[in-house]
């Protein structure tokens, strides 16, 4: 199944598609203009701002954690997001956070959700129209049912490590090896025992995913068996979804995401941290 749609497809189906701008600023970045402000200045016509921070669980100090299904459904209902519609998510530049929004929606059982290949940049480059100002929609009924197989917690992650299951870490090579610092203070860099490092940037070229064939080569070169389950992780669960979507595009049988990721793992007293 192709989880990406082109700008030409979206332009042809814009009236019957719900579009979400899911841009999130990377940790530690000091953007002069916030993603929401940039959205309000220019976005695809009709697009709603999908605020990953606001839609995450604020009952925990961990970043970007999934909300309980009821809370997620309530906020999406208020935004006017219909879980039965075809949904396309995008970000303003590059590939970073839109796959996280894709994964969040899929994990809450939205099946007709896709990522716009090239995002807003590709839309603008193709001379397609944009609009400004926030978009407000009438509240609807959003139905959220958690797919428990799609998300892993720390205890499940520990079990996967003990079983030598496939765990792919999307962080940079330096952070994975322990030679570069984490962007969040007070957290040691390094990696989980047996984890495979595939920086999410290895899957991207010129702001877009590589082809399915090229992605398969990347995973194969790192020893990832696409016919076996894979769990993805990163710093806070965002770029783990970039790798997860890359796995899906490449034809992987199944993947799950460790939601707490390194922000949780590295702070656990019984977590083993390895450094190369």
From TrEMBL:
GO molecular function: 3-mercaptopyruvate sulfurtransferase activity; thiosulfate-cyanide sulfurtransferase activity
Catalytic reaction equation(s): 2-oxo-3-sulfanylpropanoate + [thioredoxin]-dithiol = [thioredoxin]-disulfide + hydrogen sulfide + pyruvate + H(+)
Domain of life assignment: Bacteria
InterPro entries per the UniProt record, alphabetical: Rhodanese-like_dom, Rhodanese-like_dom_sf, Thiosulphate_STrfase_CS, TST/MPST-like
Protein localization: Cytoplasm
Keyword Glycoprotein: no
Chain ranges of the Rhodanese domain: 35-132, 161-274
GO cellular component assignments: cytoplasm
Pfam families with a match to the protein in the record: Rhodanese
Class of the enzyme per the UniProt entry, highest EC level: transferase
Keywords noted in UniProt: Cytoplasm, Repeat, Transferase
EC number: 2.8.1.2
Principal place of residence: cytoplasm
The protein, known as: 3-mercaptopyruvate sulfurtransferase
Taxonomic source organism: Terriglobus saanensis (strain ATCC BAA-1853 / DSM 23119 / SP1PR4)
Taxonomic path: Bacteria, Pseudomonadati, Acidobacteriota, Terriglobia, Terriglobales
């Amino acid at each position: 199944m192709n989880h990406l749609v082109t700008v030409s497809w979206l332009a042809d189906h814009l009236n019957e598609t719900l579009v979400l701008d899911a841009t999130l600023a990377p940790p530690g970045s000091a953007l002069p203009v916030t993603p929401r402000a940039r959205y309000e200045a220019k976005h695809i016509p009709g697009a709603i701002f999908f605020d990953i921070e606001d839609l995450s669980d604020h009952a925990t100090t961990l970043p970007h954690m999934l909300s309980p299904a009821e809370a997620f459904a309530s906020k999406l209902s208020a935004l006017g997001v219909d879980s039965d519609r075809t949904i396309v998510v995008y970000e303003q530049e590059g590939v970073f956070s839109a796959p996280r929004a894709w994964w969040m929606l899929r994990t809450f059982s939205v099946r007709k959700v896709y990522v716009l290949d090239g995002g807003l940049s590709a839309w603008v480059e193709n001379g397609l129209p944009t609009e400004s100002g926030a978009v407000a929609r009438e509240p609807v009924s959003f139905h959220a049912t958690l797919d428990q197989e799609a998300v892993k917690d720390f205890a499940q992650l520990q079990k996967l490590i003990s079983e030598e299951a496939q765990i792919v870490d999307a962080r940079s090579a330096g952070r994975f090896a322990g030679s570069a610092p984490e962007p969040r203070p007070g957290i040691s860099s390094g990696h989980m025992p047996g984890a495979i490092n595939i920086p999410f940037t290895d899957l991207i070229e010129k702001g877009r995913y590589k082809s399915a064939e090229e992605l398969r080569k990347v995973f194969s070169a790192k020893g990832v068996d696409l016919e076996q389950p894979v769990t993805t992780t990163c710093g806070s669960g965002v770029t783990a979804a970039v790798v997860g979507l890359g796995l899906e595009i490449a034809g992987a049988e199944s993947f799950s995401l460790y939601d707490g990721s390194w922000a949780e793992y590295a702070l656990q007293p019984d977590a083993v941290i390895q450094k190369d």
